[in-house]
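Q: What does the assembly look like in three dimensions?
Context provided by user:
Components: two
Sequences:
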Amino acid sequence: MSREYKPQVIEKTIQEDWIKNNKFKAMPDDREKFYCLSMFPYPSGKLHMGHVRNYTIGDVISRYKRMNNFNVFQPMGWDAFGLPAENAAIANKVSPKDWTNQNIEHMKEQLISLGLGYDWSKELRTCDPDYYKWEQLIFKKFYEKGLVYRKKSLVNWDPIDETVLANEQVIDGKGWRSGAQVEIKEIDQWFIKITDYAEELLSSLDEVDWPENVKLMQKNWIGKSYGAEIKYRIENSEECLITFSTRPDTIFGVSFIAISPSHPISKNLAKENDSVKKFLAKCKETSSAEADMAKAEKLGISTNINVLHPLTGNKIPVWIGNFVLLDYGTGVVMGVPAHDQRDFEFASKYKLNIEQVITSENTDLPLIQKGKLINSGEFDNMESDEASVKIINKLRDKNLGEELIQFRLRDWGISRQRYWGCPIPVVYENGVPKVIEENKMPVELPELPENSPPIPLSQNNKFRSISENIKRETDTFDTFMDSSWYYARFTSADNNNEIFDNNSKYWLPVDLYIGGIEHAILHLLYSRFFHKALRDMDMLEGNEPFKKLLTQGMVLKDGAKMSKSKGNTVDPQSYIEKYGADTVRLYMMFTAPPEQSLEWSESSVEGASRFIKKVWNLVIEREYEEIAEPKNFSKEEMGLRRKTHSTLKKITNDFETRYSFNTAIAAIMELLNFIPDSFKDIKASDSNKYCLNESIIIILKTLNPIAPHVSEYLWKNFYGNFSHEEIESSWPEINEDLLEVSEFELVIQINGKVRGKKLISKELNQDEIEQEAKTIENVAANLKNKKIKKVIYIKEKIINFVI
RNA sequence: GGGGAUGUGGUGGAACUGGUAGACACGCCAGGUUUAGAACCUGGUGCCGCAAGGCGUGUGGGUUCGACUCCCUCCAUCCCUACCA
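A: Here is the predicted structure of the complete assembly.
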């Protein structure tokens, strides 16, 4: 009678046992610590496959580290403020708060049912006043440090709904709900000077163990460029237009200057000039998202203003261009059509001069590369780099320019005109902003009236109006603020008196941070900035928050990202219920390596389940018997022992250095398939059983991080009556002696094509190996009557005869 | 438009440092077991070919004794693009 594998029964009991025994509660001690953090979820309602994948990876690594005697801290919380709660509130007539809290309760149950080993004593949610009071305090400190300021900036405005829209709420230039043509509107907003840290955000990327592609993305995003600030005096005026260019060497090719539609000059012109006014109105029709602006047709209008070229004194026309961003650089661009793609298209369209100032050999314009200057007066024949230096010197002499380092990174706009977010702790006395005192924090988000849709704080008079002269700020923080410091708060989440207590010194930095590649730039950059700013205020230590980063690929179905709008979502819950958490975890880890996208496949889930059942069937009817290590092993026994330990070695390497769980699992499967049937027989010899025991122990232990329930259950069942050793207590040791072999398989090639294979003793030298190789029939036939030009021998691998 | 990735059998993937392409699994085929089915077990399975052999890692080229791996070209798909999180 074999007992049947019923994950629903065993998983629940084991999970309850873990919680009862505080298995995952972490406290500082004298072991080496390992802070493993997975990006906390937005509580959208239920877990999706992306979460399951992310959190399984984190849990597998955490469990592996625990087995290797690390003090592991793995917390979990909720990124609970945000737009979807407001949308749900409108759609379902529930308050954002209730909706969010209900979602959290459900998702927490789901996380537990997946067997994820979190320290729930440090759970946090960003919509909790006990969390965001500290965020308001951080804002105050930033303000006092001069990192916060107010500035006008652009938002997407829906004129019918009279709300600010997020970029994703603008579809083809129309508001998603109202369908109205969205307008770009300029409003006052709070900004954080992340650019003060641009240099360090760039340089300290060298300190972290992150994937190179993510570092590169951050580097390009920060975008440090060396160039010059060049002044163009406006004709008949004392004023100048200041441009930034990375190519001062092309200054003699400037044929127009383009300014942003938001530039004060543009706005002034619009007051008196109807066509400019119409043009600016048209520019307001593109959404403020960079991708939309870049794809929009390049449009411009002449201003009839001229500036004077700083070196030649020639008149240069000033245009307004819809592609010029006021926020980037100086909001003014010098147009060099011959040597810049965008300028070339613009000049061609509006029939502006195209003057080539860098030589080219039969290359079409625009010519982007550097080279030798022409048509540049005294700078002719110089190379670009030299010319740049000399041109800047000359401009400096004339007080019309100087060298400048420019960053692409812009300051961080943190104001949001929404309800479901952390209130910005500011009051205006007669219009003058003042951050409120710490002892008046938190400024709590007011409750909504029963069954009310979310009302923006600006319309909530009770909240807004303190007195005749004193009004509250009604914007809330960007939710990226909430997620920029949660990693640090986790260490002290149960301490209501201090934002970061002594535990933060022990646990930080995060040793491994795991999350989706889609966060490669913004979230990670903002968190890095927060950490540095908090360090400079002596609130945290160290330069970087996340020592190592693992970016996981997306879960796809039918080649596309799972999304509600495409209708291709797969709900993990039904799979957990049908197959059990262990199967879902194993499937997730087996189907693709963490960094790659994972294509969902129903039948592969069956495969994962089948494997677990095979392990179950092997172990469930067995009990450990103590057998003394036999003096001699048969060839077959040695084969199994060698396979067992070489598998263990591979798995250890895959876990330790590659996070390559799919190959580790494949190796366990291979080992299971390798066990001879005769060893499994009840009447097998003691030495057979000894070897089988060894294999079972290693299979269960190496499977434990991935499939913790079934491996623990089988472990207790197998070992329980004999020993109280717990499965998660230690990772098995590799017996290196078993891995030494005296022979290897030599591959024999002729001109790089495989012609034969042979087992060769490691004791032979190259000449002897060559002779051995030539005795192989197929090799000999191919070499017959041929002159061997060259022999290439790669030790214990390949011999290649070149003929 | 810009930035970053990815592309290997019917499918998911493996090949870790330039050295046997296709591990492991899914699917499919054949057989066993079964009254039948499910489940399970055994064997086969890149393509062409009777075979010898040839071809084969998105496309086209290059470097090399040898290329999935390095270089160049083009194509396709995905992510980010500062207010989705």
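Follow-up: Chain A has a mean pLDDT of 93.
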